[in-house]
Amino acid sequence: IFENRTISPEKTLSIAISEAREWQGAQITEKGRDKDSTMATTGCLRQQQVESSIKVFTDAAWNVSHRGAGLGWVFSDTQRTAFAHGTRFEEFVGSPIMAEALA
User: Fold this and answer.
1) Is 59 exposed, middle or buried (0-12, 13-18, 19+ CB in 10 A)?
2) From what superkingdom does this record's organism come (predicted)?
3) Residue-wise DSSP of 14-25
């Protein structure tokens, strides 16, 4: 599923920070506009963001006998090209819902 790719946690975090800064820089703050025009502009911005958005897929598997969880995640662009992913095992996970929350 991950096509034998490995990316370090440091690289994953670096990509996330870079993309967050890029997204934040692209946001337009509007002062002094009426509510209707702001909502119309916001709708337009949302459409642009969807076209260049990043999707995160996560999953978890909980093992009751070991009280642990396997976690996995993939970051992909709108063409479903995975550019970052990771897996991890966490000990002392008390329930399946906790495993999903960790993922």
Assistant:
1) middle
2) Eukaryota
3) HHHHHHHHHHHH
Look up the pTM and report it. Answer: 0.49
Residue 60 confidence (pLDDT) above 60: yes
Instruction: For residue 70, list its beta bridge partners.
Output: 61, 89
Q: Which tokens is 47 given?
A: 């459409």
Which residue did the predictor score with more confidence, 22 or 76?
Answer: 76
- Ordered by start, the domain boundaries in the chain are 9-102
Chain centroid, CA 46 distance in Å: 17
In terms of C-beta density within 10 A (0-12 exposed, 13-18 middle, 19 or more buried), how is residue 96 classed? middle
User: What is the number of residues in the chain?
Assistant: 103
Place of tokens 């934040």: 24
Helices (H), 1-103: 9-26, 35-51, 96-102
Residue 1 has pLDDT above 70, yes or no: no
How open is the CA angle 34-48-45, to the nearest 5 degrees?
A: 15
